[in-house]
Design goal:
about 80 residues; 4 strands; four-stranded mixed sheet; alpha+beta
């Protein structure tokens, strides 16, 4: 599974990355994590508000920091 965190490296982006890693670990999901901080690359996803969570190329959440449990649900449904 490929998980991308879109954002410019702000505190909310870092929190989203932490929550996503914790959720993947709890679910036992092997995931490749990456951060996308380039505005042009972020815009290619159609995201105008960061942070955003992208799973396997699909934007799942943008503009807020979901909890680990919310991300866990997203990852399980995307697996």
């Amino acid at each position: 599974m490929k998980i991308e965190i879109l954002g410019m490296g702000c505190q909310k982006c870092n929190k989203l990355a932490k929550n996503a890693k914790a959720a993947a670990e709890e679910a036992g999901i092997q995931a490749e994590f990456s951060k996308v901080e380039n505005f042009k690359e972020i815009a290619q996803y159609g995201v105008m508000t960061t942070p955003a969570l992208v799973v396997n190329g699909v934007v799942k959440i943008s503009g807020k920091v979901p909890s680990k449990d919310e991300i866990l649900i997203i990852l399980k449904s995307s697996n």
